[in-house]
Amino acid sequence: MKSSHVFKSAAAATLLITATVAQAAPAPVESRFNADTENWRVANLLSLSAASQAASFEAGTQRISTNDLFSWTVFAAPAKFLGNQSAFLGGSLSFDLSDSLKDTTADIFPTLVLQSGANLLAWFGGAPGSTMTSYSAVLTASPAWQKIVGYEVTGLPILAAASSADLSNVLGALQGIYINADWKTAGNDHAELDNVNLVGVVPEPSSWLMLLAGLAAVAIARRRP
Question: Where in this chain does the record put each Laminin IV type A domain (predicted)?
Answer without folding.
Answer: 35-222
